[in-house]
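Reopening this ticket.

The earlier resolution said the output was attached, but the attachment link was broken on my side. Pasting everything inline this time so it's all in one place.
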Amino acid sequence: MENIRKIGKVRVLYANDKEIWVASGMKFWKTDYSGQRLTPKFKVGTMKSGIFAFNRLSSQLLRVGIHHIMPLKNGNTLVSTKKATYIVDCDGKTISIFTDFRGNKPAQFGICESDNGYIYFGEYTINLGNNHPTSLYCSYDNGKSFKELYRFEKDQIRHIHFIQWDGYERCLWMGTGDKDKECLLMKSEDYGNHWSIVGQGSQLWRAIGIVFTPDFLYWGTDAGSVPDQNHVIRMKRSDYQLEIIADLPGPCHGITSTSDGKIYISTGVEGGENEKDRFARIFKVEGNNITEIIKIKKDVFPLILQYGVFHFPRNSGECTKLAFSAFGLKKNGESSFTID
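Inline output:
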């Protein structure tokens, strides 16, 4: 039985084996795994955004607050908020701001840094009518500026789900959604200059993020607005063949691993017809088996305010412990935890 400990009413957004970056409103700071603060509280954004982000309900409804924290190889930190992405130094001073993109923010796995320090940023918009392009941006100067690297024209995809660096093959993987024809898994072996399509055309390729192992790529499908069954998927690197490991009771909203090779997948509550019930869950994946380790029911607030989900922080693969955040769940509208 796992030992689950509550950190506090914060979002946990980045972790290593000794410390965690958390955020509340428009402020962010480091803690240890008990929740003890290790640094001053740093702040980004305007006074207006800070007012709306102070209250959980207005923050979630308006999508304000801090959504990503990513320490960079040069010692600075990328911090994303609604319609703005900041590069801040070690003292919390803003160096640059990137605002020239579509949508409010990237998806949960919509930013990454490659081994040579390039920063990638994928656009995420609702785009129900597929009436505008979607772009992948790249910064070659540590976030001081971003340039469009790849463009999907309108009608090709709805949005970018993830852009991730694969340290095993030293390549980039990008995933898109949401309709069958819009679900793509793409790969670039030259830092995003050229892309090949590895898989496409069904909900099996609709992923919100990937876990990498030496021989396989793992993901959970994110079929949230269609009747398709959701699955845990494993793809073999050598031939790109897919294997369905297990069915899921709802759409996947998070996937991560820890340094001991354990893989974790979370499912959420969106109100879709393929959901088993109104519980969000975290599963541990071991071989061809999955084990449920926690479930919490959706809270009383409407889905338009916040889906009921669990999210994992960036960089969990280097951690011995698992940290996660709960959103829109009973008694845990926005709280974070660790599992020993």
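Reporter confirms the inline version is readable. Residues 4-339 form a domain with the Methylamine Dehydrogenase; Chain H fold (CATH 2.130.10.10). The two ends are 10 Å apart (CA to CA).
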